[in-house]
Amino acid sequence: MCGIRKGRWNVILESTRELIRLALSEDIGRGDCTTEAIIDPDQKATATVYVKQAATLAGLSLIQDVFAALDARVRVVPLAEDGQTIAGKTAVSRLEGPARSILTGERTALNFLGRLTGIATLTRLAVAQLEGTRAKLLDTRKTTPGWRVLEKYAVRMGGGHNHRFGLDDMVLIKDNHIALCGGVAQAVSRARAHIGLSQKIEVEVDTMEQLVEALETSADMILLDNMNQDQLRQAVKWTKGRVPLEASGNISLQTIAGIAASGVDYLSMGALTHSAASVDVGLDIVFS
What are the TM regions of this chain, as residue ranges (predicted)? Predict the structure, then answer.
């Protein structure tokens, strides 16, 4: 599916740095009044970051990025790797440096780690349900504003695949586009005339009648929206492999296996990013 175009990397990296700056500013405000009141500015400390439950890790590098932005004197030593699955409470990072900075940056770093590890963990559980089928799991654009590249990275760490990162990645003709154009064929025809062969076109269909219409267009991929498993099986039979099929709409851990068994090529699951629960993470001072 879509990846990040080379020209966007600098923008993405800067947006991540800005997100970290905003997160630190949000938490620290005018200063960490508790830490500044009771911790000596020359106090050194060593701390361990833990993930406290079974999980698939993602976001460990954000710990380094947070403290690099806050205080470069804090040394961050990774004890695990993104994409690694742990069975229970596990030390994932060690911090060494000024105690004030470790305490001040703690919550921001843990928020990034907990959120991204939650997404990777849910993704890994969903991918496991696809075993024995041809289907691949995709994410969506239903991401937290400003967090998209990080949340999509977490999906990859969980074994999923990225759909488009933004509106400029590919043409995806949805139901509202079709309504405004007057039909599936008209929408695809306009899109192809506009972009030529420079980008792929995916078109969404809601009914079997629209699927028949879409199969007669130059669409490169067809999205089957909110179809039941009988409809999905029929769509696979009718399509006969001419174009890849993507199933989408209210896919959950309870339904994903049955949907994949229909024979579709892809399943897109918005819940990976809009409904994943953050995992339980913590930081303990182990020496001061």
Answer: none
**What DSSP character marks residue 278?**
P
A 10 A CB-CB count for 250 gives: 11
Q: What end-to-end distance do the CA atoms of the chain give, in Å?
A: 49
b/e code 13-34 from CB counts within 10 Å (16+ = b): eebbeebbeebbeeebeeebee
Amino acid at 43: Q
**Residue 164 φ then ψ, to 5°:** -60, 145
Q: What are the Cα distances from residue 11, in Å, to 7, 164, 241, 252?
A: 8, 16, 37, 33
Catalytic residue list: 107, 142, 174, 204, 225
Helix (H) and strand (E) counts for the chain? 11, 12
Q: How confident is the model at residue 10 (pLDDT cuts 50, 70, 90)?
A: low
Quote the mean pLDDT of the chain: 95
CB 116 within 8 A of CB 139: no
pTM score, whole prediction = 0.94
Q: What residues are paired with 78 via a beta bridge?
A: 93
Binding site residue list: 107, 140-142, 164, 174, 204, 225, 248-250, 269-271
d(Cα 214, Cα 219) in Å, to the nearest integer?
7
Detail the residues annotated as belonging to a binding site for substrate.
Answer: 107, 140-142, 164, 174, 204, 225, 248-250, 269-271
Distance of CA 190 to the CA centre of its chain: 31
- Could you give all domains of the chain from N- to C-terminal order, each with its CATH number? 6-121+276-287 (3.90.1170.20), 128-274 (3.20.20.70)
Which tens digits make up the pLDDT trace of 134-155?
Answer: 999 999 999 999 999 999 999 9
Residue 136 in tokens: 């691949």
Q: What is the pLDDT of residues 254-276, one digit of tens each?
A: 999 999 999 999 999 999 999 99
DSSP per-residue letters across 90-135: EEEEEEEEEHHHHHHHHHHHHHHHHHHHHHHHHHHHHHHTTTTSS-
